[in-house]
Protein 1
Amino acid sequence: MNYDLVIIGAGPAGLSFACSLRNSGLNIAVIEKQSRQLLADPPIDGRDIALTHLSRKLMQQQGIWGRIDPGEISPIQRAEVIDGDSPYTLAFDTPSDNTDALGFLISNFRIRKAIFEEFDSLETVTLIDNTEVSRVSTDDRGVTVTLASGDPIKASMIVAADTRFSASRRQMGISSDAHDFGRTAIVCWMEHQQSHHQTAFECFHYERTLAVLPMSGNLSSIVITAATDQAETILDMKQTSFNQDIEKRLNGRLGTMKQKGKRYPYPLVGVHANRFFTRRFALIGDAAVGMHPVTAHGFNLGLSGQDLLADEMSTAISQGRDFWHPTVLARYQQQHMLSTRPLYHGTNSIVSLFTNDSLPATLLRKAVLRLSNNLPPVKWVITQKLMAKNQVKLKLPALLDRYTRVA
Ligand SMILES: Cc1cc2nc3c(=O)[nH]c(=O)nc-3n(C[C@H](O)[C@H](O)[C@H](O)COP(=O)(O)OP(=O)(O)OC[C@H]3O[C@@H](n4cnc5c(N)ncnc54)[C@H](O)[C@@H]3O)c2cc1C
């Protein structure tokens, strides 16, 4: 089988990348371990995704946003960061300039369903489902993707969107910076007595963090992160004790709380690839950068990264250049790393500052909250990251033309 491009992984990054290339003229195959049926009707996984304005714009452009019932899109109008039992909060409000929200919360299974519907309407892509990639290799003439069955697929280029533990990334010799936080996120939905008024809460308690994100009506998405050796205890807690515990950690802000559905565990490992491409091979989504969920950037970065790569490849095609050329891929890497590096390391620093109970860390945490609250530029920078609607695109052709060496 021969294609122009093989995408490994039909998660949100892989599928939206295929959608972004719909007018490129490329003959594309997407290879996925899971079945088409599971992709078309993904089960609830307890994950709710906070989306930025840029993500909304990209999803609108791709025809994905319109496939989600507006009643399932919950605007986040205010965010409060709470430090332990201190009454002091760092608060972010939606600016009063006709902006509708700081961001938007949508359940992961609904986003995945909408992306798959859009992907499934494309005529230029082939989905090879129920199929695992076991090996990838590239040379100057093209690429070979070997399936678990032993069958080879030939193409001009591979784009890997095969999770933060990407096997193809390792096979291609791309190193990464990985950080095992030794912590697990436990997510679920909870109904509450009082309205959340579209407010997201991030509560940093001593041994745990608790994020409460507003869904439709009096329902919130709960994300607890705790040391992995405590995760089982939290997962096994009786429902009444669990309800009371969350109510207490929120200082009764939302009145009585009641869990709805199941609790789901996610062990937390952050990964940042040290480069996003090598010969005829590029990384997108979590395979490029897998973030800790506390700053809610993983999916957003995946979406903006695939858009940058698709844009560079489409430009090359329209100018009659090779879409897999190292210059094209280097341009993508340069632009994407501009956002991923600071966000990845910044998020990891926030996690260590807010989960460290030593006296210096506690004092520094209090100072950071007060500084952020009282210094308008700090708040502005954080709010802009959520609300910026356009990609930051660099114009560095001369520099990049020399940057074509492939490791
Ligand atoms: C609790 C939690 C909360 C989160 N909240 C947010 C949030 O609020 N905002 C945000 O922006 N992000 C959030 N994220 C992050 C977000 O969920 C991920 O960044 C996103 O789902 C990654 O998408 P992806 O397509 O890159 O990878 P994945 O969704 O992991 O998809 C990868 C696909 O590749 C397939 N695959 C892997 N290997 C192979 C192979 N060898 N052959 C064939 N197929 C293969 C897999 O089956 C899978 O379908 C959260 C994450 C968690 C855990």
Protein 2
Amino acid sequence: MTNPPAHAPSLWAATAPAGPETLPLQGERTADCIVIGGGYTGLSTALHLAGAGKDVVVLEAAALGWGASGRNNGQVIPTLSRADPSDLMTRFGREKGLAMSGVVRDSAALVFDLIRRHGIECEAVQNGWIQPAHSPGRFHLAQRRAKQWAELGAPASAIPKADLDARLGSTYWHGGWINPTGGHINPLAYARGLGGAAMRAGASVHERSPAVRLERRGDRWRVETPSGAVTAEWVVLATGAYSDDLWPGYRQTVIPVRSYQMATAPISDNLRKSIVPGNEAVSDTHGDLYFFRWTAQGRLVTGGALFSYIADESRLRRRIGARLQRLFPQLGEVKFDHVWHGFIGATTDRIPHLHLLAPGLLGWIGCNGRGVAFATIMGRVMAEAVAGRPVADAPWPATRIEPISGHGLARQLARGMLLLYRWNDRKEWRAPA
Ligand SMILES: Cc1cc2nc3c(=O)[nH]c(=O)nc-3n(C[C@H](O)[C@H](O)[C@H](O)COP(=O)(O)OP(=O)(O)OC[C@H]3O[C@@H](n4cnc5c(N)ncnc54)[C@H](O)[C@@H]3O)c2cc1C
């Protein structure tokens, strides 16, 4: 038995139950579908395909949940980061926009359904996701958002300021909205649990098996790893922001944005009762997002973006600690036990993209920071396509890839965008009356 490589240190690496045991791919074999990448996208695709009786092989370069799926905040959010249903309908037409909105609306519910159905132990809490508004203008937006989602059948509703203050234990925001289908999970535990469920359903899962070559041979794809190869009619590229150069130009369709996550030391029960006592997941309307949620051990997990990698995290600890104290003065001094980071794939239009890269080669990329629920449901969408649903009938439109020109420079500019967001946040913010 070969152990998967250790995950980078994080709260999740320290607390998630062990994943299923897997072996690197050895030798030649055939399958119906090869999935490259062992995060939520790849594992959900594999679970849904195996459940439909398909022979599926997952190749993960490192370990299950090695990428964003094992490093994120664990907020299960049934919205995109920016585009609302009305935006999708304006851009893609009413029919497609409605179908796309349906995918997003159902995404969080699917995560918790899978967790229940497959008995995945991942500290799942489906108490809702709240988006508080940091200015009066953003509260109007929050009200419009809640109305749009409610019209599409989501159990969403606006939360007036007085109610929100009580729900969050803070007077900082102007009101907000909630979708009760959301919540939070231990993200690495969820990834490992999905992997175990996919294997029980019949999928072959191989960690330490990087796909190093992808080529078309006749009407099939052949994917090579250092110690084996698989041939199949379909390949699903599930490598997200951790994509390499396996498919030319794919990596360059998103800008990888580094996001820091940090977990406080456990907080006393008394204080805990005064901060988000309903245990919802919370992420607000700032461009440079404020987000936080409790863990089962009574830690707050929050974080923030930085311009670049830092070896010394003390400035980040001070900045985010001071922010938490501003939001929740009752907290007093804040101590962080764990700090880690990961990459988010950002698209220039802030909408995730589904690509039919070539006949029988599918992938989606560009979560823009909202991918726990979305990756899970896109795994189902891609599994349906592999199982025979024409890609043109998929609820998400499949487009050609458009590598971002001057990708290296765009990465630098993205850092400048963060400054712009912060400037805009400061301009917009109003202290509640
Ligand atoms: C710090 C952070 C916080 C976030 N917080 C949230 C949140 O709270 N809520 C939310 O909704 N979303 C959040 N996200 C986004 C969410 O985590 C991602 O959208 C989601 O995990 C993407 O899953 P994935 O399976 O598509 O990609 P990943 O989980 O990144 O998986 C890709 C996998 O592909 C593998 N791979 C790459 N190349 C190869 C190859 N050649 N061969 C084999 N394997 C390969 C990698 O090793 C990796 O394991 C966050 C992301 C980050 C980084």
Protein 3
Amino acid sequence: MAAKKPAERPNASKEELLKYYRDMLLIRRFEEKAGQLYGMGLIGGFCHLYIGQEAVVVGLEAAAKDGDKRLTSYRDHGHMLACGMDAKGVMAELTGRIGGYSKGKGGSMHMFSKEKHFYGGHGIVGAQVPLGAGLAFADKYKGNDNVTFTYFGDGAANQGQVYETYNMAELWDLPVIFVIENNQYAMGTSVNLLSQSVASVTSVEFTQ
Ligand SMILES: Cc1ncc(C[n+]2csc(CCOP(=O)(O)OP(=O)(O)O)c2C)c(N)n1
Ligand SMILES: [Mg+2]
């Protein structure tokens, strides 16, 4: 295969690329193990896995700098590992132990790390979006150059509070990055299924 021209090469060193690969692999292996433990009944409450989406958070974390903040939905293990939180602390939390990030009382969806600027883990769909804008507002108010990565799913994208947040973020020129992770499912509901049911409703209306 012909060598790529310099302009087409990724703007990252071999060491950096290997680090990104390791970060993605850590998430994949962690999630596989979490899935097994959940199946064995060793993880209480909910346990939403991030398998298949690893590159999203690892890619964005590659652009983050010290001081930047991040928060996400309930599908949060990958985000925690990618921002440098301790895998053992996350796993201890999943399995309800005192060494977990929320002392074993929060579980999969409710972990935080002030040190790594990770602000959850949110079970209410879309709730983290205005919170992310609030964190960005604080940074703007303080006059630093931090940004907040605010992740949410395609299923959250039509929440009213998300649109309100877009408006406020634009009006106040907030340093917030909205990341919509479009995995084609609103948790268990396929986008295709939804468009099929919309299409069938439309065709019923037309045939009447
Ligand atoms: C306000 C609110 N409404 C409904 C739910 C139930 N619910 C849980 S997950 C989900 C779908 C979210 O889909 P998406 O944002 O695409 O996230 P994904 O699971 O694909 O990561 C819904 C509707 C909820 N948790 N919160
Ligand atoms: Mg989704």
Protein 4
Amino acid sequence: MSYLLPNYQRANREFVSGSGGYLVDGEGQQYLDFSSGIGVANLGYDHPTVKEAVAKQLEKLWHTPNLYQNSLQEQVAEQLIGEKNYQAFFCNSGTEANEAALKLIRKASGKAKIITFIDSFHGRTFGSMSATGQAKIHGDFGAIVPGFVYLPYNDLATFEAALDDEVGGVLMELIQGEGGVLPAKQEWVTAVQKSCQERGILLAIDEVQTGIGRTGTLYLSEQYGITPDIITLAKGLGNGLPVGAMLATKELAGAFGPGTHGSTFGGNLVAMSAASAVLTALAAPDFLADVKRKGHVLKALLEEELLPLEKVVDIRGIGLMIGIEVTIPPSEVVEAMAQAGVVVLTAGHNVVRLLPPLTLTVEQLKTGVAILKESLL
Ligand SMILES: Cc1ncc(COP(=O)(O)O)c(C=O)c1O
């Protein structure tokens, strides 16, 4: 009997330490990590820059409320934004970043109708859960937040048909992560942005899973050549410390005047010290280009080794965010891989998801693929 609510399906395995791209369980068994703790520990488990920054901040001051100036928040915002036309709001998780986006869309547009997509995932709090286009996530929780319209992903005709004067915004992922690692089509994304701009509809991109270097650029929206009105972030931003962020264009930001929205812990000093160190590491020359290169190597290797296998249907993704659609329950693959010493994830109904730390070497990626192949024979 556990003292914990049974809302998670936990494997019978506990990780007690980690270093680089490896985790160690209570029995001393070492695992090569292809999960980054669901896209969080993007720099691995003991990145020296992040560790040092957090240790230093722990000695100085842990928390100061958002009633005072916060130069660490300013610094992280500057690292996230640079020359782009945004301002940042900090919170503690992806769902909170999306809550902020939903509230900002409604307040800035004066409209309550927001388009999201079938099989999306935006979080578990009421607003983000209601934005999520999956009935199983809405569950038996009673009335959800009204105003959401769920449309088929990658389909322009239904999107265009749904646009009317009541739509205030669109919230979407560029790769549906939890939904099964489904990348958006370039032409569709370009057309969605164009229609939004023409009609004055706000475009919010949920980069909670795709952002912070996961796909080889700081934001995946850069690769799609779009400039969203709002970007939401979390997961990799704190490399394990809880940090979420919403970036909104300066024109929109004014809709959140003092007292409109907030968070006690949002932008917490210790979390910000981690975020700043993460962004410094990502800004090192060639770091992101190397992620892109490793992403190409990984995908090419997977296509060569796994696609010919009977149990493999499709391989898709961008950078180091890869989904392998399989004919067997993906949870079986996860368990077989764990027993062979590699941590992988599932997504959707039939997808094995790989989110390796961005710092893994090509050799480590090759090792993981070889073990994955064994588990799919
Ligand atoms: C795209 C996306 N948005 C939002 C969330 C929710 O983030 P959190 O669990 O930090 O609230 C997730 C989590 O998996 C996600 O993948």
